[in-house]
Amino acid sequence: MTLQEIEKEVNTIGAFLGAPEHLIPTFGHSDDFAKPHIEVDKKGFHYIIVERGQERHRETTKNKNQLLFIIFKSISFSMAVDFELSTRP
After folding, report:
1. Which residues contact 69 (CB under 8 A, 6 or more apart)?
2. pLDDT tens, 18-64?
3. Number of helices and strands (H, E) in the chain?
4. Which residue among 6, 46, 60, 85 is buried most deeply as judged by most CB within 10 Å?
5. From CA 21, how far away is CA 15, in angstroms rounded?
6. Global pTM?
7. Residue 31: how many CB atoms within 10 A of its CB?
8. Using an 8 Å Cβ cutoff, are 36 and 49 in contact?
9. Beta pairing partners, 58
10. Which residues touch 3 (CB under 8 Å, ≥6 apart)?
11. Cβ–Cβ < 8 Å for 68, 58
């Protein structure tokens, strides 16, 4: 599966869930500031977080579904926190 195919699938699922654009990772490059990005190479799919120019976290898998789980675990957690903060009495 190519990086473009992964990006298309993530964007489709993200739109279905109503995920804000700022929570969707970038693909093939890092925006830094701890925003996740996705890379694909012969070793598999990589979920990477770079902050202040240094890699802080990397998860690698050969399974596309595992990659989607990693991506949307982070997105759904952030959405839940945002919802809780917006509805807090």
Report:
1. none
2. 999 999 999 999 999 999 999 999 999 999 999 999 999 999 999 99
3. 2, 4
4. 6
5. 9
6. 0.92
7. 12
8. yes
9. 48
10. 27, 28, 38, 39, 40
11. no
Residue type, 23: L
Cα(79)–Cα(77) distance, integer angstroms: 5
Domain layout of the chain by residue ranges: 3-80
The tokens for 84 are 């809780």
Please give the C-alpha separations between residue 11 and each of 32, 39, 52, 66, 87, in angstroms, as whole numbers: 20, 15, 26, 16, 26
* Amino acid at the residue 28: G
Per-residue CA distances from 57 to 28, 31, 36, 72, 75 (Å): 16, 14, 9, 16, 16
Paired tokens of 58:
């990397």
Question: Quick one: tokens of 14?
Answer: 């993200």
Instruction: Tell me the two tokens of residue 44.
Output: 């598999």
